[in-house]
User: What shape does this take?
Amino acid sequence: MDSLNKADQIAESPVGILLVGGRGTRLAPLTDLAPKPMLPVGGVPFTLHQILQAKAAGIEHIVLATSYLAEVFEPFFGDGSRFGLQISYAVEKDALGTGGGIRNAAKFLAASSHAPVVIFNGDVLSAHDLTAQIQFHRARDADLTLYLTKVKDARAYGVVPTDSDLWVTDFLEKMENPITDQINAGCYVFKRSVIDQIPEGQVVSVERETFPTLLKSGRRVQGFIDGSYWRDLGTPAALIAASADLLQGVINSPATVECNSPTGVGFIDNSAIVSENSLVNEGSVVLAGAVIEDGCVISGSIVGQAAQIRAGVKIKGAFIAPGSIITPSNSIGEILGFAAK
Ligand code: GDD
Ligand code: MG
Assistant: This one.
């Protein structure tokens, strides 16, 4: 492979690593049962949207970097053939952080390959042009190309200033007084050799260690700025809103279930029972085995598997945990799911 000329290297398909090993603390207790990337968003486990997005950008092999509840991914995604690409699983017995997780997952990619490696945070729903990001990476022979977007409040994110030629000048993870509203949107294209330099078998944060080190040593780190739809699904409100956005076509993903509610924009699983006197609308999803009795209004919400919504309950912007029973006297936020903030 080392003898490949540049044109051959450019022709190699990109490969991917999906970071899905986080604990998802802010989504507890939902994440006591399922890791955040397997929670239903747009009617399917969230990771499926990202896998199909990767495939659409020409990625033929993707490694899921798992740790917390690692065992739940493979039964759903298998070897990937059902989705038209190859999927491998890298398990961190103890979580290795984002950088350690990337290094560990890279062992499952062909060692000799020069293909660019696309890293996805496993909780970001975006409509950015990944194909263009990969092209930009190749065109300027970058070591690392970070997808960047702008947000109103950058404090919860990696803050990433760039110069007039889009080269990254600093990387500041979660700062109290952000120096710019431009943030790390959680999708990176790495040159393979840069990943191989991350120390092996250690806890490493790409955000706090790898990125700042690369910048200090003068490596070619650039920003790919894309202002299209973007959401980090780390909070209940964001996850619920993302699901409704998918159903309502605010963002399109081929993985999203088809709307079939007779009473509004919404999806009702075949095995769910919804009274004809109840409304399912504003991008709601009612999952398998759920029951919605008379006179309910379910708006912009996710009703988990086998949940029961008793007569007369009105729910807006909530995630009803699987198996919950909701009566008119329940306060949703208090007991069984989440009310959107
Ligand atoms: N395999 C593995 N191992 N994955 C991990 C680990 C780990 O030890 N720790 C976190 N992850 C995964 C999470 O599952 C998630 O998909 C992703 O890495 C990012 O972790 P979060 O916990 O969601 O980080 P964040 O949202 O606070 O910040 C990150 O995302 C922002 C954009 O959404 C950072 O990358 C920020 O710089 C960025 O702005
Ligand atoms: Mg996150």
